[in-house]
User: Fold these one by one.
Assistant:
Number 1:
Amino acid sequence: MKWKMQHIEPNKLPAFTLFESVIAITIITVLIGIGTMIYGNLMHSEKPLSYYQAQAEIELKLQELKMNQLFVHQSFDYENYEIEQNISFYKGNKKLYLVTYTARTGGKELLVENHLIPNNLNE
């Protein structure tokens, strides 16, 4: 009888280890699936990274324009996008400038921002 108990005990251990392995593989598979779905959604997001880079650069250019008061048309080329700065009087009012920033990448328009800046030189 002792021989049977000793013989059965070692056989139970590998089956239990196999069961644990199957559970672990299932958990890992589910986590990989969730990670792949999240990554896929990020890669197919509506706005590319260059959109956010251009938005930050436009904010810097606007602050620079307000400080320097140099109201001229300019174009800025960057690695992934280009920004065009257009200046005009707002509805013919000589006391307000309308500054339009247009960001493009590969001929596709990413972002258009309009800002009003007072003309302090024409007071």
Note: The helical segments are 2-43, 49-68.
Number 2:
Amino acid sequence: MNDLGVLSKILMVALVVTFACALGGAFLPGTASVWSGTACVVILIAVPVLRVTWLVVDWTKSRDVKFALLGCALLVVLATSGAIVFLR
């Protein structure tokens, strides 16, 4: 039930990929730099959301209702702020 080892491996891969994208954004010429930098920012935004979602699922499976509800509340705040950004 506790898949935190898998989550930590995913986060380590994301760290390496983000670092590679950041280097590409800094040193590649032209549009490759823009795409690499954009990928870096997307990963930096998506990985914490993935982590919270993973933990909410894990807390729900272990019947830890308080933490699951707090994680869901955080995801609702993130979704609401994202919707506000796209609607403005």
Note: The radius of gyration is 16 Å.
Number 3:
Amino acid sequence: MDRPIIWGMAFILLVVTGCAKEQIYRSTPPIQRVSTSDFEVELEPLKAEGYDYYNRFRYQFTNKTNGDLIIDWSNCFYIQNGKRYGRFGWEGLTFEQLRGIAEEPDITIAPGAKDAIQIFPLQLIGWREDGVRMKANTPEAGFTLGVIPAGENGLSIAVIKDGKTLRKRVLIQITQE
């Protein structure tokens, strides 16, 4: 008598979990451009490979001046819902470099040049638990990129021109359905 009830409950649980709604993330706008007379910045959230959530941004900077511009990455911040929420890491950053990061580099962009790279919020990374306890050169060592949450997300960029710091915010609204 109890066996049919247990099997029936198990079947219902399987059906309910199998029909659970998948979370869908969207970005408005898909690519945000902010332009001044000196530079243009593009920011596009990118979805995690094989998943439907965002975990990094494609960033592109264009120097529109006749002189060098410097991006002061130590004063560039990830913005989440209007507040600074840490700095950025970039594609190619290794586990060892991430653990030892103290100050982010200044990047000089030549006149008319473009700089493009994938960046991710450092505050959202997840450490691979086994990797933290192991040496950095083991395959288990490392980190994973975390989910960029729903809400206002973006970049506060600091650009140095002729010794003066110019600031702009590039913001995207991410929704979760």
Note: The domain at 22-176 is CATH 2.60.40 (Immunoglobulin-like).
Number 4:
Amino acid sequence: MTNEEIEKIIESWKNHLATGGMEDFKLEIEHNVPKEFAAIALYMDSKTVKASGGNEDYYEGYRQASIDVLNVIGVQMAQDDQTKTITLFRKESNDAKQEELKKHIWG
């Protein structure tokens, strides 16, 4: 994916979703999220929102597929209504969580 394609996806997402009640929101992409992964996440988010206007079965299938793809690439999105920010960040793997839990329990 070229930088131009990535920027086009980001702009398309902003034009589609950052409107109406969300026009004051800003997008933050954490430094450890590869740009290609961020573009995939934003593309999937936009497509899922568009699918929500259609057939419910289609939407649920698309939503689950989007969640599965984001899980595979390890990216999550979070919306903070207080700071009006939508953040893309790397999802902790289960292995990392298990190691943290072990350290917490056994020191």
Note: The CA atoms of residues 97 and 103 lie 10 Å apart.
